Amino acid sequence: MKEIIRTLKPYIPEEPATAVKERLGVDRLVRLSANENPYGTSPLVREAILSYVTHNDANYYPDGNATDLRMKLADYWQVQPEQLVIGVGLDEVIAMVNKTLISAGDSIVVSVPAFSEYALNGLVEGADIREVSADFETGQYDFSALVKAVDETTCLVWICNPNNPTGTYESVEDIRKFVAAVPKETLVIVDEAYIDFVTTVAVPTARALLDEFPNVAIMRTFSKAYGLANYRVGYMMTPLELANYIQTIRLPYNLNTLSQVAAEAAFDDQAFLARTVSQNAEERAKWEGLFDELGIHYYKSEANFIFFEAPDADADGLADAWLTEGYQVRRGQRDGWLRLTIPMAQDGDVMRHILKQFMNK
Q: Cβ contacts of residue 243 below 8 Å, gap of 6+?
């Protein structure tokens, strides 16, 4: 066994909703701890899935190349189909990147707080994880410090934009300047899992950098704004040579047919995506307005969640107050802080009322 494995803690999934409801005696649990889409999934997805299972059995393996989905994405993003690495969620893509690039003694640079999978997969491959703290007041990346953390051992830098868990957005120009300042041998991956929720910038994606630099890759997912978390579809646009190397370790038939069918249908329903983004932005503004009113420290979000400091740093107290009424938020990412997935309007009204009551107590 790898020695590093002995030191790592396994991922502990959230308690099943049915168990939570039974334990708390509530009829309904609204999970706002995993940044899922509360508005559901495009009806086109249901239609496509039902059509497929009605006319097909499951005795054949799926298209191992995900050809139809690959061609649809390549056409939209104007990349060669072979530049796409498609995985079972971005978790698999992240794992494949680390397996391909990282050897013992290499380093990875990441801003913290960050998505835990970046460091975890690097550690498994023997990398030195160099953490650079984001600005505490704003949650924004400290790009100058990130540049200083990169040296000849650095194979990979992760930029999550908007960042998880802070929700903060970094401009394409700031990312461009950062990439220009690091060695071309260092791959910079921009994880845009939440980019669809950005509403203050006309073109928020860093896709253009893929054409400008030989060491940039862009990741996207269908789990968030498209509402396909259960189908697990993520992909990365990357330089052709790197994509070819990663494909050599990709498991054959990694993405099942139902996931491919669902992703294609979801991608075709841009109206559903637009409604989701609009509703999320409207509700996000209500939360930020209340936090401003109550003097609660939070990070300006461009995602479908908000990261904030609980009143009197009593994160567990507030989380429990919400949970008692059937609302589950994310704890444990920073002492005294919580991450709240933006709920639908009616749930937001109830939760904001609970927050005010909590503060009055």
A: 82, 83, 84, 85, 236
Helix axes 89-101, 240-247, angle to 10 degrees: 100
Provide the residue count of the chain: 361
Q: What pLDDT, in 10s, does the model give residues 21-74? A: 788 788 889 999 999 999 999 999 999 999 999 999 999 999 999 999 999 999
Of 358, 350, 353, nearest to 318 (Cα)?
358
CA distances in angstroms from 235 to 36, 96, 165, 287, listed in the order given: 18, 11, 20, 31
Contact at 8 Å (CB) between 302 and 169? Answer: yes
**Alpha helix (H) residue ranges in 37-171:** 43-55, 67-77, 89-101, 116-124, 143-149
Per-residue pLDDT band at 3 (split at 50, 70, 90):
confident
Say if CB 89 and CB 234 are below 8 A apart.
yes
| Amino acid at position 47, single letter | E
Token pair of 143 as six digits: 């790009």
Is the separation of the CB atoms in 293 and 356 below 8 Å? no
Q: Give Cα separations from 229 to 51, 63, 119, 180, 307 (angstroms).
A: 20, 21, 22, 34, 21
* Cis peptide bond prior to 214, omega within 30° of 0: no
8: confidence class by pLDDT, cuts 50, 70, 90: confident
C-alpha 77/C-alpha 219 separation (Å) is 12
